[in-house]
Amino acid sequence: METIDWSNLSFGYMPTDYNVRYTYKNNAWGDLEIWDTPDINLHMAATCLHYGQEGFEGLKAFRGKDGKIRIFRLEENAARLQSTCRGIMMAELSTEKFKEAIVTVVKKNERFVPPYESGASLYIRPLLIGTSAQVGVKPSSEYLFVVFVTPVGPYFKEGFKPTPMVILRQYDRAAPLGTGIYKVGGNYAASLVAGEKAHAMGYSAVLYLDAKEKKYVDECGPANFFGIRDNHYITPKSSSILPSITNKSLMKIAESMGMIVEQRRVPEEELETFEEAGACGTAAVISPIERIDDLDANKSYIFSKNGKPGVICEKLYNKLRGIQYGDEPDTFGWITIVE
User: Fold this and answer.
1) Global pTM?
2) Could you give the count of Cα atoms lying within 13 Å of 14 in the half-sphere of its Cβ?
């Protein structure tokens, strides 16, 4: 692996040695299979292609100073995928099978886990798709579960530095009571136009307002939003927000630091009261927000005047990263060590 410049990896796909798969047929999941080719043989009438029966997850493995490989909160990813399965009527994969797949694929690709202090990690992508051939709108009778891995660097090229974001009211990410709470590809496809428009204007992401009233803060691009004020960690609650495992973790860490956690509706005007703000998710962990521009109101909410992350954001980030790499004690029981 001498050819990989670990410290300068982008957040993108790099081929690795193996992927793992389960197949669901005749109302049962088969045994775990290990593949050394990346291709999927898929019928042109598969339900994932026509009716969106597709769900995925994202989690990471980290190599610690002690050389051990740690996977972060895989049980939570299993539970979220199961929720997605219930939401779009796919066959559920048990937590045990999910864990077997994740640990196996990391072990088989161990040489691609970046070294400690490189700033990189091994990104793990579980994918579940409906594969039976049909043209009627109904759930698939067959499914394929695939997990592949790839080493990645920071999601935002700026790394842990504040970036500007923008409110674009003419776009919605997901409807209330729709699929926003599930991790399905359609939600991300729906965000591409707004995201590309924001990038062209010099912003790192779109801060979406709620689709129904356009009054409340919803998601922050591909991540959850949080604000810091008076030792409070405040994050939106909505029927269209994907429950971020990183956000759930940060809330626990904030509580352990003596902060008061509030998960509730957050009116847009409350943005001007926050001392710090960030977007959080598996890919970036925390992306501090420099400012949020509301173009329609010709207004800016500024959180960083010196171009640096806020003190609380930095503490939360360092604590979570410390747990992931084994530099901090795993008092919450979040880590699975690959033996």
Assistant:
1) 0.96
2) 21
